[in-house]
Write a structure and sequence with these properties.
With 324 residues, the chain is mainly alpha-helical. The chain has helices at residues 4-26, 39-59, 64-92, 104-109, 111-115, 128-144, 150-164, 169-189, 204-217, 222-240, 248-258, 260-278, 284-312, 314-323. The chain starts with a helix and ends with a helix.
Length: 324
Amino acid sequence: MRNYPLDFVKGLLVEAMIVYHSINYFYGAHHFLLSYIDFVTSGFVFLSGFIIPALYLKKYDNNIDAIFNRLIVRGIKIAGLFLVINTAVHLLIATNYNGVHLGLVEFYRNIWYVLVPGDRRLSAFELLLPIAYTLVFSAILLKFVDKKIIPIIVAAIFVWCMIINDRIFNLFYLNFGLSGFVLGLLSNGFPFYKVFYRRKWLSIFPVGLYFLVIFLFKKDAMIVYFLGTVAVLGATYLWGTVVSPYSIVRKTIIIMGEYSLLGYLMQIFFLQILFRVWGNVFNGQNGILYSILITTVIVWGLCFTVNSTRRQSILVNKIYKFVF
C-alpha cells in the first residue's frame, strides 16, 4: 500500500522544483521568490531519510537486514546514476547555464571534490549524491547503532554543521536527510503530525512564521531553514490527507509524487532544453509562467506514461526497477 499523502508531498516538491528552476533559469538567482521556495532542495533530501522508518520498517516488517540491503543497493544505484548522467553531460555539453566550462577530464580530475564535499559548479543533478548518502548512512545507523544513540549522533552532526557555518554541499544536505531519518524514527512512538491533525488549519501558522522570518531578515540560518522545511512538509502532508481523492489536481500531483526521482531528473533535463534552445523566448515574467506550465505538462505526461507502461509491460517494469 502506498502512502498517498506522502506522495502528495513529493509531487508538490517536484512542482515546486519546476517553479524554482524556471525562475532561476529564465529570470536569475536574484528573484525574491526563490528565498520562499528554497525549502524544496532540503525537502527532497529530508524525505529520502524520513520515508525509511515511515515506510520501509512497515513494508519489510522490521526486518533490518532486508532494509539494510535495500537501502545500500538503492544508494549505490543513485550514486551510479549521478556518475552516468554527469559523464554524459560533460561529454556532450561545453558550458552549463551559469557559463561554467564543462569537460570530462576536468570533472574526473576533481572527482574527490565532487563526491565528498560536493562541487555544484561541475556537477549536474547534484542533489542525487546527498540522497544516495542519506540512504547509505541511514542503513548503517539502523543496522549497527542502537536506536537510542542514533538521535544523539545525528544531533551532534547537526550542531557541528551550525557551528562551522559553512555549507559544504553534500554534508549540509546529508544532515537534512539524516535529520529526516531521525524524525521518522521518533514519530513511530509519537506521530508529530497528529498535534495538528484535528485542526489542520493551525499548520499554516508555522509556515507563515517561516516566511515572515525570510521576509524580515532576507535570509535564514540553518536552524530556521530546517524548521521551515519541516513546517512546510508537515503542513503539505496534513492537507494531502483531506484533498478529495477524486480531485484531478490531487491525482496529478500524486502521480508525480510516485515518480518523484524521475520527475526531478526530467524537469531539469527539459528546462535545460528550453533554456538552451528557446532561452530568449522564455525570458522574463511571462516566460517563467510558460516554462512552468509546459514543463509541468511534460513531466506529468512522462510520469503517467511510465506508470501505465509499467503495468502493461514486465520488461519496462524491470528496467525501471533496475535504474531507480
